[in-house]
Amino acid sequence: MNIQINQLGYTPDMTKTAVLRGCLGGEMTVRNAAGETVLTLPVTPNRVNIWEDDVAVADFSALTQPGVYTLHCGEEASYPFPVAEHPYDQCLMTLVDMFYYQRCGGEVDHRAGVHAHPACHNTLARVYGTEEIMEVSGGWHDAGDYGRYIVPAAKAVADLLLGWQWNPKAFEKTNLTNLLDEVRWELEWMLKMQRADGAVYHKVSCAKFCGMIMPEDEKEELVISPVSTTATGDFAASMAMASRFYAKVDAAFADRMKQAAVRAWDWLEHAEPMLFRNPEGVSTGGYGDRSDEDERLWAAVELALTCGDEKYLTAAAKGIAAADRTHAPLGWGDMRGYVAVEGMGLDGEIGDICRQWVVDDASRMLDRINAYGITMTERLPWGSNMNISNDGMIFYLAWKLTGEKKFRLAAEKQLHYLLGVNPVGYCYVSCYGSQPMLHPHHRPSVATGVCVPGLLSGGAASGMMDIAAKELLQGTPAGKAFVDDYRSYSTNEICVYWNSPMVALLAALMEA
Ligand code: 9MR
Ligand code: 9MR
Ligand code: ZN
After folding, report:
1. Mean pLDDT score of the chain, rounded to an integer?
2. Which residue positions in the chain have pLDDT lower than 70?
3. Is 232 part of any domain?
4. What is the dihedral of CA 484, 485, 488, 489, to 10 degrees?
């Protein structure tokens, strides 16, 4: 396809842009399901050479009448797409169901069809280098592998809660699970990963990645890797944050999380940085970091919001004043974005600084967006679709804060990219759209031969970091460095913390 559109369609009042290849001038027509031309637009001959293509961007936002349409330019046509009041309801539900499919330590029931399976990974786990045995069942499998890691778990939880905070109504329709119950599944597991002294173990997994088997068939010993200050900081932050969300639902549970967060903080206060590296013999996901300052700061902010104590407020204020505020990344490793976003809830000057931080970040990003509407052109990292969803969250907040439409449009463009307006023409959410991603690096999908729906692919990555990418993508420009091949974990794995920011972005944009 040489005319890329959002394959799930658009709401009537949304910005509607398409990216066209190979038709750089003349006219673009919009045709309805009967083939009649309903709109004719000039294609602005803005030849943009990007990723080895000359492309033109067409804005057909004038199309507001519900219906099913196609775009045409010369010989080229787009996939049919709807303009409708609720084009994303089903997709959001399935993006949330993804977390249910990723459940560990409990049954995934018959409603999951071929992907149903009995409880997995429910044997006792051994603390690395000791004879100590712990019960740490539960939580979600991180990604295409079956590890369970605290650092990315904290990001996933935070995003899902933000999505809920921004637009709880978006989560009223459910399919396999509902948002707060599902997040609790992860939180209950995280609580088990805390040591008696307050420190938090970095992860639990088998020593090595297993083959492409179902989770209940991975029967190697479970190993709990050592504690880290990054995991402990992220744990304190996400627990303190979550405790506010569950206070009305289940006060006892909320209190348990608050106490756990406080104990993690108390331990951190006296702990030198302990940055994680896989111990000898363990080779599953590392989630290493160069600094734990941002994790500690995020914890201070959340504890200040939850408990209000002077010591947390002081730590948060000092940390925010000293922080590098040139960017607000919502990473798994760089948590400054959560500091900025959550810090907006603090009173007085700190709150103002954080609001400015978010708006400045959005403004700088806006200056960089390319023809496809995204901020990255030269280099796309492993999991670029996470960065794109994250950027959408920041654009959305900047719009909320300033009321400036340009930020709202930029947020929508991030969504359009993920759902089809990208140079490979895929809808990056599995089983959705006219050209869906269908072969992710995801063990249950490979083992059953059937793709789990609602998985957001990591997306284009310029580094060529697996055999399939090396074999099939050598020399490909960054934005096209994607292959829908299950072997390609660096371009086509799936992850809980890639789905989570997309859930938040989509829910935010669905706000009535
Ligand atoms: O399946 C693993 C995936 O989750 C990781 O992101 C990736 C990189 O660490 O590794 C995958 O596992 C592969 C391993 O690294 C090498 N042997 C083949 C494994 C499956 O492709
Ligand atoms: O998402 C992670 C990405 O940012 C890193 O570049 C990459 C290599 O370290 O690891 C990714 O995380 C993988 C994790 O290590 C194991 N589970 C699957 C994750 C996604 O591929
Ligand atoms: Zn499991």
Report:
1. 97
2. 45
3. no
4. 80
Domain annotation covers residue 322: no
pLDDT in the model for residue 200 = 99
Select from 66, 87, 108 the last residue of a domain.
87
Atom of ligand 1 nearest to the CA of 147: 4
Who contacts 131 (Cβ-Cβ below 8 Å, separation ≥6)?
none
Amino acid identity, residue 295? Answer: E
Establish if 437 belongs to a structural domain. Answer: yes
Given the residues 142, 441, 442, 466, the one annotated as active site = 441
Evaluate: CB of 489 within 6 angstroms of ligand 2: yes
C-beta separation of 214 from 119 below 8 A: no
Give the per-residue pLDDT at 504: 99
User: 214 phi and psi, to 5 degrees?
Assistant: -70, 155
C-alpha of residue 144 to centroid of ligand 3, in Å: 11
Domain that holds residue 381: 371-512
CATH label of the domain that carries residue 65 = 2.60.40.10
CA–centroid distance, 180 to ligand 3, in Å, is: 20
pLDDT value at residue 117: 98
pLDDT in tens, 342-392: 999 999 999 999 999 999 999 999 999 999 999 999 999 999 999 999 999
Please say if 484 is a catalytic residue.
yes
415 torsion bin: left (phi>0), alpha (psi -120 to 50), beta (else): alpha
What pLDDT is attached to residue 1? 74
As for how many domains the chain has, the answer is 2
Q: What is the pLDDT of residue 42?
A: 86
Of all protein residues, the one whose alpha carbon is nearest to atom 19 of ligand 1 is 209
CA-nearest residue for atom 3, ligand 1, is: 145
Q: pLDDT of 410-431, one tens digit each?
A: 999 999 999 999 999 999 999 9
Told to judge if 493 belongs to the known catalytic residues of this protein, a careful annotator would answer: yes
Catalytic residue among 145, 218, 294, 361: 145
The alpha carbon of 131 and the centre of ligand 3 are apart by a number of angstroms equal to 22
Q: Number of helices (H) and strands (E), helices first, in the chain?
A: 15, 14
Annotated catalytic residue, options 142, 234, 342, 493: 493
| Residue 145: active-site member | yes
- Is 308 part of a structural domain of the chain? no
CB-based neighbours (< 5 A) of ligand 3, an ion: 104, 120-121, 215
Instruction: Using the 3D structure, point to which of 58, 87, 116 is the last residue of a domain.
Output: 87
